[in-house]
């Protein structure tokens, strides 16, 4: 089968930052599905792994990345019970296994959902990683529930892939008052389209929130840089509130600053369940199917912003360059 990957970590402008190659078509066993891929989307995790996983070394065989895909089940392992051959599916994959930038991929059925029926393949491919991240961070980490309807949530980084769908889920599913950050006119307009009640400039976050009429907010989601906004988040979080982040930190986070408010902090990594094969691994199957229903009935909308046609090295380079710029709005999809 055809695949696109890399053997060493290089700048995206380098000729060999991505290479096309042939590799054996995998055979499913156990609970694995063999999916013939029709479209993938590109996320920041892709370029971060490309930049860092093969530094100062050359891999014996090319590494295939990519963790968002839509396709058709072509074969199944002997223990598969959730899907059958011919089913259209979507999923975000497992970071410990070979990725989706290939014609075929093996994927555990417990982290796969039924493709949202009314959506095109490219509209559906934009969604899995971001909806799983946004859903888990709100309902598994912050533990938002029915009694929280009407409370306030600040989403730092509203125009990106995760931020875009997080705005929608917070507003249309959780019933929260949504404040988000953006600075450029086009990103402000995009956040408003997703349903944000307030859009503030992250360059002066504390004062912008106060000007919007909020002394404190009940929940904060950080999708940009934990330490960069930490002091502002500590000041803005309501006593007994909850902050959660997906961004990680190269230096320690000063959690002691939350003590006086008895506030909580959580990390979210969408790959935790698959990496550690947690007992509730199948929750991602349920989340994807629930979101497929919400996308199907129009409650949620795809965050697809741009489609690149063709399974080519040039298209992957172009998508990675755009993501690395830090100015991407919504999602970029590559249609095979």
From TrEMBL:
Q: Does the keyword Signal apply?
A: no
Q: Identify the keywords attached in UniProt to this record, alphabetized.
A: Cytoplasm, Metal-binding, NADP, Oxidoreductase, RNA-binding, Zinc
UniProt-listed SUPFAM superfamilies: GroES-like, NAD(P)-binding Rossmann-fold domains
The record's PROSITE patterns line, in alphabetical order, gives: QOR_ZETA_CRYSTAL
Q: InterPro entries from the xrefs?
A: ADH-like_N, ADH_Zn_typ-1, ER, GroES-like_sf, NAD(P)-bd_dom_sf, Quin_OxRdtase/zeta-crystal_CS, Zinc-ADH_QOR/CCCR
Enoyl reductase (ER) domain boundaries: 13-334
GO (cellular component) term, any one: cytoplasm
Task: Provide the coiled-coil residue spans.
Answer: none
User: Where in the cell does this protein reside?
Assistant: Cytoplasm
Citing just one GO molecular function, the answer is: RNA binding
Q: In the UniProt record, does the keyword Transmembrane occur? A: no
UniProt record similarity statement:
Belongs to the zinc-containing alcohol dehydrogenase family. Quinone oxidoreductase subfamily.
Q: Which PANTHER family does this entry report, sorted A to Z?
A: QUINONE OXIDOREDUCTASE
Complex formation: Homotetramer.
Name under which the protein is recorded: Zinc-type alcohol dehydrogenase-like protein
The scientific name of the source species is: Olivibacter domesticus
């Amino acid at each position: 089968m055809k695949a696109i990957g890399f053997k060493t970590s290089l700048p995206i402008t380098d000729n060999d930052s991505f290479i096309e190659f042939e590799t054996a078509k995998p055979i499913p066993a156990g609970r694995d599905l063999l999916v013939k891929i029709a479209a993938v989307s590109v996320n920041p995790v892709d370029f971060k792994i490309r930049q860092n996983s093969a530094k100062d070394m050359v891999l014996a065989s090319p590494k295939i990345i990519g963790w968002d895909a839509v396709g058709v089940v072509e074969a199944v392992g002997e223990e598969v019970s959730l899907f059958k051959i011919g089913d259209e599916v979507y999923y975000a994959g497992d970071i410990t296994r070979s990725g989706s930038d290939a014609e075929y991929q093996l994927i555990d059925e417990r982290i796969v959902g039924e493709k949202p029926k009314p959506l095109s393949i490219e509209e559906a491919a934009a969604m899995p990683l971001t909806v799983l991240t946004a859903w888990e961070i709100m309902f598994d980490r912050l533990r938002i529930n029915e009694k929280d309807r009407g409370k306030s949530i600040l989403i730092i980084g509203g125009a990106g892939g995760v931020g875009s769908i997080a705005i929608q889920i917070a507003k249309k599913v959780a019933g929260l008052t949504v404040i988000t950050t953006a600075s450029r006119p086009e990103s402000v307009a995009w956040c408003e389209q997703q349903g944000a009640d307030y859009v503030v400039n992250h360059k002066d976050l504390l004062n912008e929130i106060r000007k919007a009429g909020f002394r404190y907010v009940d929940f904060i989601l950080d999708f940009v840089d934990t330490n960069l906004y930490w002091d502002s988040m500590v000041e803005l979080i309501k006593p007994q509130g909850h902050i959660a982040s997906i961004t990680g930190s190269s230096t320690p986070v000063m959690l002691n600053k939350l003590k006086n408010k008895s506030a909580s902090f959580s990390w979210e990594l969408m790959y935790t369940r698959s990496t550690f094969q947690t007992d509730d691994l199948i929750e991602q199957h349920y989340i994807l199917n629930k979101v497929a229903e919400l996308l199907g009935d129009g409650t949620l909308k795809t965050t697809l912003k741009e489609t690149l046609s063709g399974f080519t090295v040039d298209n992957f380079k172009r998508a990675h360059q755009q993501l690395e710029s830090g100015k991407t709005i919504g999602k970029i999809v590559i249609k095979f």
